[in-house]
Structure prediction request, 1832 residues.
Amino acid sequence: MGRLGRRPREDLGPGALPTAISSLSRALRGGLGPETFRKAKFDLPEAVAELWSLLFSLLWPIHQEGAVAPRDPPDALEGQIRFVKWVLCCYGYGRRHFYQLSEDGSYGSYELLLAFSWLLVYLSLPERFLCLNCVHQGDDAWICLCKDLASYPVSLALGGKGRVDIRYVQWLLGKLRFQWRSLYASQQEQCTLLNKIHLYTRGCHPDPSVGHLSVPELELLRFPESSKQLLQQLESENSCLEAFLEWKHMELVYWQWMDTVMDANPIGIPNAGKQDVFLPEILQYCSPKYITGEMDRVQKNLEALRQRLQETVNQQRAAWHTKVSRCSRRLPRLSELSTAMMKEIQETVGCELAALEQGCEVKSWSHRLQRLVFREAGEPSNSGTHQMTKVIQVLRREEASLEKTFRRLQEECQQELAILARGLEGVIWILPPYQRW
Amino acid sequence: MLPASCSHRLVTELQGALAACQKKEEALQQSIARCRVLLQPWEVPSPPSPEPARSTETKPAHEPTPKELKELELLNQALEKALQVRKGICQVQSSKSASSGKTAPSLVTAQAGPGARPRTSNPKACVPAKPPPTSQRDSGRLKKPARASSHRGKAPGNALTHARQPENSMPIEGPSLCPLPSQGQVPGLPTSTPVSVLREAGATGPSPGPEEGKIQPGLRSEAFTLKEKGTQLQLPLFYKKIASRNSSLWAQVQHYQSSADTAVAAAKAHFMERMKVTFDLPGPAISLAEIQEEVNRLDQACHLLTQHLEEALDVNGEAATASLSWEQEYHRLVTLEGLQAAVERHLLRLRELRDAEEQWLGPRPVESSLWGSALCLGGKGSSGSTNHIVYSSVEELQTMTALKLRVTMLKQQIHLEKVLMEELLPLVRSENPAGPAQVALYRAIHSQLCEAGERFSILVRDEPSV
Amino acid sequence: MAQSVVVQVGQCGNQIGRCFWDLALREHAAINKKGIYDDSLKNFFRNVDTRRNGDGVDISKGKIRSLKARAVLIDMEEGVVNEILQGPLKDIFDSKQLITNVSGSGNNWSVGYKVFGSQYRDQIVEKLRQTAEHCDCLQCFFIIHSMGGGTGSGLGTFILNVLEDEFPEVYRFVTSVFPSGEDDVITSPYNSVLAMKELNEHADCVLPIENESLFDIVSRINQMVTSGKPGTTVKPESLITLNEGGIKKKLQEKPFDTMNNIVGNLLLNLTSSARFEGSLNMDLNEITMNLVPFPQLHYLVSSLTPLYTLADVNVPPRRLDQMFSDAFSKDHQLIQADPKHSLYLACALLVRGNVQISDLRRNIERLKSALHFVSWNQEGWKTSLCSVPPVGHSHSLLALANNTCIKPTFIELKKRFTRLYKKKAHLHHYLQVDGMEESCFTEAVSSLSSLIESYNELDVTKGLPIHDPLRLNIVI
Amino acid sequence: MSVVTVQLGQCGNQIGYEVFDTICRDLHNSQGFCCKRENEVYQASCKEHFFNEERSGVPVARALLIDMEPKVISQTLLKAARSGRWKYGQHSHFCQKQGSGNNWAYGYSVHGPKHEESIMNLIQKEVEKYDSLRGFSTIMSMAGGTGSGLGAFLTQNLRDAYPNSFIINQIIWPYGTGEVIVQNYNSILTLSHLYRSSDALLVHENDVVHKICAKLMNIKQISFRDVNQVIAHQLGSVFQPTYSSEGSCQYRRNPLGDLMASLVPHPEFKMLGLRNIPQMSENSLSYTTFAWTGLLKHLRQMLISNAKMEEGIDWQVRPPLLGLPALEKVPHNKESHFNTSIANLVILRGKDVHSADLGGFKDPALYTSWLQPSDAFSEWRTHRAFNKYEKSAALVSNSQFLLKPLDTVIGKAWNMFASKAYVHQYTKFGIEEEDFLDSFTVLEQVVASYCNL
Prediction:
């Protein structure tokens, strides 16, 4: 395939910056022109509103991606500004000045430009944006698990004193269990249906490595009218991609320009001293309590593991020394032989451990969108595809380890409660009979 | 009654989890509904509206470049290959349709091309899919195709319908390689009927009913299901074109990502550095999001290490240790040492994270957990390349999805268990188990924490009830 | 569907058996109009293609070819069995189903049990096996015998033992004819008590019958028929009045046949719900399950109503209710006992014909206040509804009662036994038989005593205020 | 989407037949009181739920017939085939020659393990016919041996084999007296076992339905068929299609799951009762008109006063005033007329259904202190009338409805158990005294929990 925009760098002339910015803007589907950026460089207020809403429009969908019950985006600028500040804060953008910007959006375009550029690097904003808005042509399969049931807190109107009976908690948990089951059944049904569609349309896809049609493709055929949308989306995506490639090609110019922007520093003040003006308020949304708890747990586990390793290593070392001395007595030439062997072993182990470190190897590609392709066993498959069996293997391993963790936690509770149960006088405690389910 | 803070946290967590499930379920239901519609009989739909798609109107017209033509050629090669594959799959079907097609032309219809007309069909039923000249501006992009389509009635002949080569020889110019229904139309304006997209386009049949949404009873018999005719469907050319352009663009994007431009990278690094130095970004080195992610990673790592340790020790079972060869002994030793080193590294990292976290928060405890789960967006640089994931049976697909769900569920369950432990255990620890309320709480907590809320224990007094 | 095998032992057993088979054939003939061998026929009959060699091949479906009774006929005299083989039923039996001798057991239980038992054991097992092999699901053996004589009582209970050893899974229902007070067999108390021990230990369920009761019933029927109230006549087709040559004038002449017919009907009604369809089926295994609360208390007092059908059918509901009332009256019991004034452990109502659940419930509600049930089984009712009525009736009811009213029969038996045993009368006839010891007598009588004691213990609770036992106390 | 109905034992098979027949008659009922289009969607949805389409065009019930004796099954198959409207699948039944003899232990420990494989295979085969499996609905009596014993065994197996499916057990609660003597034993064994493996027990009390036949349907000589038809009608009024949400015209895709999620999430409360209104003979139906307000007022009073039917409702019962301190423990034998609910589901069908006001069911006073009406109350509606009733309402309630019958059954069984009567019949097949005790404790706990709402 021909590659667009692989032109030599010398092309970058004086008009390059506006071109670069406008392609970036197109890639982000924002209507911002180079002029806005220029204004921002000089901290002109005219650019403020545009930049806020650009940031908002970029960050909102990213944030919503993992969120439950899509909340309505705040209409008022103020709400949007708060949101943007909050997200940046969570990403660890540390410039106080930014957070001190007034929420009426009256000034701060320079700050916003800095923040925007920071996000470009930190979040790989354009790439991410493209992925996020990726048009689905295939039957997509995410192997990635992180977004699956990601939950966001739901704002609550707890009646009365806001206290609930434990039975209500049980009720909710039971409901959740039922929901899981419904999900399971729906998923199974979807699999069956998808497979039918794949099976029935085998050989119809122009790309032989795909072979069959997907749901969006079939819809294109089935509902020519309404499927125009898909085509439009694809077209618009194509132009975004083109713009992105163009941007990539000229990106350097932008960063060079940013250098000058930073030189300009029209505000002058680095960071005002007041640290806590905004942060605590924002951080209400985060839960360090949870993280701290997690850290404690992980630390505990790691330390236990270290302890255990310490002991076993010592034992093992001793065992090995005895073995070596015994062997060397019998085979004096062992040492020569063994040096090579030992090296080999060290290498093998090194590889093994490295593989282990990468443990979630599948995950590296699992976050991506995968087109689901049906191919009967025995049919040849191209390289560059991922086999479901491999995914299943990984998932099984993960399942087993999670189950173990869960059981461990339950046992922990069991032990603690058993101790407490001894305090109940004149009461026989009957545990539920053992059952597989 | 549970204390207010505890109530609030538990209910929030659970409601959140429920809402997440609900959302997922709704999405699934939608996608199921879509599939089901497709699997139901395809009735003859309305003819396309004569209006071209608006979006395409705005597109600047341009001549097909030589490159585009080349792409098309490649595309066609791909199609040819696809055909080979298909041949194998549906030999039976195609031979069947080939033989039956001539005698009983049933399913195939009007060509949707401009003025295209089924040659032997009932004229009443034949509705021109689209007035030919409507879209001069739109067809700009595909002028050649537009021209090519003026071969009236040629369309059914498909270069790829090997079974039924049409009598018309193919025009040599570009797009006619795929003389599909909608030639001459703009991309994004599919006008073909499902019937007409069937491959077996040589024969004729009544064309779509005249009005949208109304299906003439007489035409009902035209309904077909994917099961029967699915393999004869064909994607319209304009779609194929756009799609192929799309994938080539994505490939380039991919390429950019994999091959880092050093100059740009340096410039970016420089920018970040300057931000930090000049503007004194005081924020901690690691963001909360990252901390969370790292902690999770460490947790996972700890798990894997433990597992590996057990495997290493368990290779031959404890009993057989004596009979290990020295190589095995050594292997084990090196492994253990390696693990040890890894653990040390992780602990070190954890310390760093703790420091970072303290910087972040200070001592102030804060409630509610937003970060419990929202963190996939932290995974930077993911890409939207259209990779394939191949499955070979519905069972495999089902197993995968089931496992995926199971893993997600377990994660959620573990998370909830931890929260419940944090909140509930202190309640029973602190108070003396005296009153009935306390005992009831105790029983409920046991069911929640030890039985996953599925079963309950029973407390019976030592003496019978009076 | 499961099958049953009838084992008829001794003179009495074979006489009853003859009536039973005759009635069974008639019942099926009346219902099965198409002549198809169906599941309900399969219960008691094999369908055999006799044109094939010898024993013939069982045909599981299709037209009736030649029906063979699932029965084993055993007697140590030839008389009755020969009669059967020469009578109209000869086609449904063949020689392979018979075991006969000519010597008889001399009204001696030990001759039947010990002598003939060991002598014929292999042969008996062989015949039973053969019969069982023709069944694809053998559920129940019905043993018909009398208690007072030698063969039925001795060999009959011996066979009960054999069945338990050889077919432990198959139910053993015993229809035992108990001797009346003025029995002409002097040793009948010995025989009965010795047999009782075996029944206690090896039967799943015993349906005791007394000739006296049967005789009384027959007399009442006679009276009814001969009284000739205007407009009331016994329908000639009714089952009770029906037998081989069955017409009503013979009633007086051959009371025994009528009496045996009643027992035959008991067995037919007992199995009807298992054989025919209905809205509330009752399989045979449900009888023991519901009516036997403790293993040894498995003696069921039965009553059969209506005994005759009157020609005028003017007030059906009242007659339906009358049927239920009669079933609990002393006069309709097949043994001399009064369940109404004793303690019920459990009660089953097996209804046939066009009777619905509401009729059943109405009558239970109506009757239950007049009955005493044991404290832990205040609602001890088991019911079944079979939609096929008996021939000649629109409906019928078989009531089975596990009731302490059976106790007097046992006490009376024990009394007569003790009277003889105190004098050691006729004892030597028994003791000279190999394997008989005096301990056999003492053990038998103590088995009977403990049975009586069990009933006593229950009887004393009758009429006492009921205290519910304390329930489990849940903390919260 | 699909639910497999498993008909067990004589009772289960007889009722199962009536259920499918009722549904099918409703399908073809011209008096849907709604427009043609709507009727078509309703029919399609119904068919999808309960039947497999066959080439012959005769719908095939998604049901399995299981009994340990052949009579009832062959009759049932025949009746369905003769109806011409629908039939059972060709290989969708399993029977043996000999029943369980009213012995729970025999059904559970003998028939169960012996036929486990065949039955599970049969189920597997049935399930494979569907695009998706939502769950199982078993119909069984708890008095007999096969329905109860084998039913309990099978439910456990279903739970193991299909851990993600919903399982509801339609329990036919025997007459207080006069069916089976050991029915209380069988009942406590059944209930306690189902409490472990089932998700919900929807209870149909014979006594109640019998009274409905007598009082509302005006049937003089009531047969089992009459009783079964009323049960079938009630079940149909719950499980026939309803709109998936307020204002939507889509039909509910997962009624079983939805029902469970709204009624039985708590593991200690799984007993569901069913009430419906109006219920009358077809003759009177044509002379009667209904208003939603009246119907719902009655239904609500039936709920709070625990009336089994429209007739003889105690109108004196009022919900307690809110805000009174919750009583520590109200013993159930105390005369407390008010029936406290955990959760309720009301299903409305028919004309002007959107105008029906269900506010009366959203009163917090109706519910246990720990659930708000928003969690505890759900409603399903459809325009399509059901079974010739222009308007009808059904109520599925998780409430103290069944407290008394349950307590009575436990009490009677306990009395019998105290004297050890009949226990030998069970130990013969491996159900020991401890098993009885386990069952008693579980159920006593359930009673206690329902008392302490």
